[in-house]
Amino acid sequence: MSKRTEKTIVDIAEELNLSVSTVSRALNDNPNISARTKEKVKKMARKLGYRPNALAAGLRNNKSKTIGLIVPRISMFFPATISTIIQNKLQEYGYHLIICQSNDSYEQEIALVNTLYSARVDGLVVSTTLYTTDFSHFDIFRTNNIPVVFFDRVPKDYDVKVIKGDDYLGGYLATSHLIERGCRDIVHISGPLSCNLYVERVAGYKKALQQHQIPVRKNRLFYQELTRESAWQTCKKIFSQKPYPDGIFASNDTTAITVMEYCRTIKVKVPEELKIVGYSNDPRTEIISPPISSVDQYPAMMGERVVAALMELINSPTAATKFTPEIIPIQLLERESSAAPVKHGRKKK
Amino acid sequence: MSKRTEKTIVDIAEELNLSVSTVSRALNDNPNISARTKEKVKKMARKLGYRPNALAAGLRNNKSKTIGLIVPRISMFFPATISTIIQNKLQEYGYHLIICQSNDSYEQEIALVNTLYSARVDGLVVSTTLYTTDFSHFDIFRTNNIPVVFFDRVPKDYDVKVIKGDDYLGGYLATSHLIERGCRDIVHISGPLSCNLYVERVAGYKKALQQHQIPVRKNRLFYQELTRESAWQTCKKIFSQKPYPDGIFASNDTTAITVMEYCRTIKVKVPEELKIVGYSNDPRTEIISPPISSVDQYPAMMGERVVAALMELINSPTAATKFTPEIIPIQLLERESSAAPVKHGRKKK
DNA sequence: TTGATTTTTGCAAACGTTTGCATAAATTTA
DNA sequence: TAAATTTATGCAAACGTTTGCAAAAATCAA
Known about the structure:
The structure is a homodimer. Chain A is built from 13 helices and twelve strands. Chain A has helices at 9-16, 20-27, 35-48, 54-61, 77-92, 106-118, 139-143, 167-180, 196-211, 228-238, 253-265, 284-287, 299-315, and strands spanning 66-71, 96-101, 123-126, 148-151, 161-165, 186-190, 221-223, 247-250, 275-279, 293-296, 326-328, 331-333. In chain A, the strands form two sheets. In chain A, strands 2-1-3-4-5-11 form a six-stranded parallel β-sheet, with helices on both faces. A six-stranded mixed β-sheet of chain A has the order 7-6-8-9-10-12, sandwiched between helices. In chain A, helix 9 links the parallel strand 6 and strand 7. Chain A binds a DNA duplex through residues 6, 8-10, 18-25, 28, 30, 32-34, 37, 52-53, 55-62. Chains A, B: It holds the Pfam family Peripla_BP_3. Chains A, B: This is LacI family transcriptional regulator. Chains A, B: Residues 7-61 form the HTH lacI-type domain.
């Protein structure tokens, strides 16, 4: 390995016959350094092509100006959008973002938590895996007063800052909408109940049914990983015998899209014979035909709230207090997949 | 800021009456440490809950076991897929990945390069912005013998390791396919020529036309940012006067999808009146109706080749030699958007 | 001009880990 | 048993930056 060519503050100090501490303070705009000295130092730094060594500064400060983000997958629309918003906002505060993927594996999430701690990130932002029910691997951050913010998929009984969509209301609105559009036999395809987010959407689904005196039928509720493959298998079950349902509320858009595709193969017309509502407003729901109704979770707003909460925690390192969950509004976007029946009657003049 | 509770190797050394150098060597499986000592050290480390400080090790070694990745946007299908593959492969080698987005901004790319250098990443993987034509900001990595690998959007005259799809062939196949399906008036919507990848796809387009004695018409070639908005504006131009083209080859799928949507609004039938081919096999091309033909770039293969090349460079830090570009195959996926005309004739018995 | 006060800078140590070289301890050989 | 050789461990310094405390320099007031 050839010798490094990198300049350090020692080089600057020698060129100007100053101490390294003066150079460091000048480069960091310390108020106790004269403007004249500061100017000389910065000029020489530019002349020598000096670049700071973040590892050294981080070691000394025990801070890295870096935030760790753990999401299940960046190929999913919602996490990718939020990641982008978070990165752009953090940049305004001079922080850098390390994006990590758990691939929905609990073991990988633990490894990532340890790795990010070892890298001394100044804060952690997490959307958990589908299967994370024990959150003790995050204790190391909380014990050391390093801020942690959870978003979307969040812990249930773990006192930490949480920012989530209104999942209960989302499930309620999606189901009520289907009912308003005439559906009386509504399937709900949910994610696994190990993840609290889906528990709430199911609760919203049940509430809407109850409010309209529609019985909750256990064989119209499915719990699964929300992948295309799982959705396809679930469709086989749903449409294996008549009577078919007249509405389906899917807890993510990949599932809703798959239901649509399955109906195409068995010649069930959407929305005439079956109405569909998805979740998260994935861009695909707009371009598919017919476009799919979906619950929008405002990822941009969530991303911004996440960063604001994180900055607040970083800048006010008081002892941990009780955290109140922060709820981001949701909105049902009605599209053709759940359109009202077309009236075939004509009034005579 | 409260006092840290973290244990260091000094704590382990004191507990066992060993030197810190022995503890360090034991934890790193140095062959000069006895198995008995190694076991005692590792056991005590576990007992004390020791976690290494990556900043300290990185500073001492001038290595961080971290790779920096710069892509235009992670919300785009191709970069997101490659990022995921790269991260998973790097994990097998004990490396961590920092994913950064340039948001297609040259200035942001420069800032990210400097930041990643400051963080002392052991290697850099880059897909450049649309507008990067001066690559000197990467010199700092090459001067310091830190491996750099470019993929997809790559430099043209800059001696560095490059892994890219066969863009020339992709443009050629897409256009030939349209010709074989009967198109004679083919539009090509390209990205900006500041990016070499699009230069090659245009060249393939032109070659296919020439081989079939179809004149290249300048008003059937468009250069733009490949966004939905730009594509919509371009469609307005294309379909502002007759005769309309009978085929469109778009240099990315977002553009192809937008063309399809535009045709729906002006009642141009796809594929009967206009055939469409996109690029990158975005999942949306499959679920839209009719499904869009698209050039698949095998992102998984590309991601694996990127990591393999990077590992080779990291493990063989010889002086820079001439690099040969590595070409990843592509394949045209024919779908209904470019289907052959349906024959309406019936033979009489 | 001298003393008091304020501003600016330097010394030395800290941060946690790794490793070259020297030395101590253990093992082998004569 | 002594000498030679091998194995295992310790000392000290390195890595680049930051900062508490002390001291030097500059400025102000009497």
